[in-house]
């Protein structure tokens, strides 16, 4: 049995969504003097964080840096951040491609809760409407209703979001 891919985003639409979210960040953080840390969840979240950083450089005077979060969904106690960095009094934006149940994002928040950030926000390209955990993204590219059996995949080619599909 072959599963047919139903594309919900193409590359140009994904680029527009990313740009819109960058503008939303710039508007939300106008007047903020705290540095912004874009914390991308490997792999696609890191690609998105790099795209956002480039867009924010063009439209806002925010000081941004990127960190990479790795976690094993089968063993969520093992969370690694690619660099030691203080987030005290900084704004952290956790970036992931798809919010399904919310579980991955909750696990990814853990190391940040051990410090004292000024604010933690969540950005996702695609948010599914049936989360199992009380989590709300601050910046959403597209919100989509799916069945529990369907999965959403985001494709990245050469550090560009090339599409997203439902399977």
TrEMBL record:
Keywords: Glycosyltransferase, Transferase. Pfam families: Pribosyltran. Residues 8-145 form the Phosphoribosyltransferase domain. InterPro entries: PRTase-like, PRTase_dom, PyrR_bifunctional. GO terms for molecular function: glycosyltransferase activity. It comes from the Bacteria. PANTHER family: BIFUNCTIONAL PROTEIN PYRR. This is Putative uracil phosphoribosyltransferase. The lineage of its organism: Bacteria, Pseudomonadati, Bacteroidota, Chitinophagia, Chitinophagales.
């Amino acid at each position: 049995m072959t599963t047919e891919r139903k594309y919900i985003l193409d590359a140009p639409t994904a680029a527009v969504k990313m740009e819109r979210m960058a503008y939303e960040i710039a508007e939300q953080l106008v007047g903020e003097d705290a540095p912004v840390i874009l914390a991308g969840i490997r792999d696609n979240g890191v690609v998105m964080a790099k795209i956002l950083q480039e867009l924010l450089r063009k439209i806002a005077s925010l000081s941004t840096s990127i960190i990479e979060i790795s976690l094993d969904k089968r063993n969520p106690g093992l969370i690694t951040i690619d660099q030691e960095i203080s987030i005290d009094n900084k704004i952290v934006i956790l970036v992931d491609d798809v919010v399904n149940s919310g579980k991955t994002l909750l696990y990814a928040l853990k190391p940040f809760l051990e410090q004292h950030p000024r604010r933690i926000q969540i950005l996702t390209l695609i948010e599914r409407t049936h989360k199992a955990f009380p989590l709300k993204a601050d910046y959403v590219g597209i919100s989509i209703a799916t069945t529990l059996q369907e999965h959403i995949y985001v494709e990245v080619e050469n550090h560009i979001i090339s599409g997203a599909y439902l399977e």
